[in-house]
Amino acid sequence: FELNTLAHVSKYDLQIHNQEAQEMMLGCLMIRLLNNFQGIVILSNYGLVVEAKILLRSMLETLFILKICCEDKDFIDKYIKSDQVYRYKLLNIPRNNPDHIFDALREYATEDIKKQVKDNIKVNNIEEFEIYELAGKAGLKSHYDSAYRLLCNTSHSGVRSLEEYLVLDERSEVRILNSG
Questions:
Q1: Cβ atoms within 10 A of the Cβ of 27, count?
Q2: What pLDDT score does 106 carry?
Q3: Are 151 and 57 in contact (CB under 8 A)?
């Protein structure tokens, strides 16, 4: 609880200059990291261990990006621009899915809009970043290959992660479902 309090207080002690991209990005990433940490503490306190593990995975992703941004000021611009690749993927969802929930997006995602985004990606040589690449660039590949990979099973509802919801007896038979 002392660490949780420290994390909470630390968020309000951040001093950033709104004209400095690196400071703004680092401030946002640090707040996200601290919020994830606080969420883990709160969820764990209420017995929601699986949900806390999902936040821990998110926290690791944030840590990878934060470390790179601290060490490589030029990366921040590339990271911000990489959102265009994500945007382009979202704009193409209605093309592959006729469901009516995408009607508004279908109306917005005209061929002209998609072409503008695609051209922007090509002209500016914008690349998509994979988490394992970011972990390697941050010098945290071992964290990716260990904790992050193990937590992926939990985040994606892998069979092993579902064992958390079972309470077994001495004969390994299910007694009850553990709801947290």
A1: 17
A2: 92
A3: yes
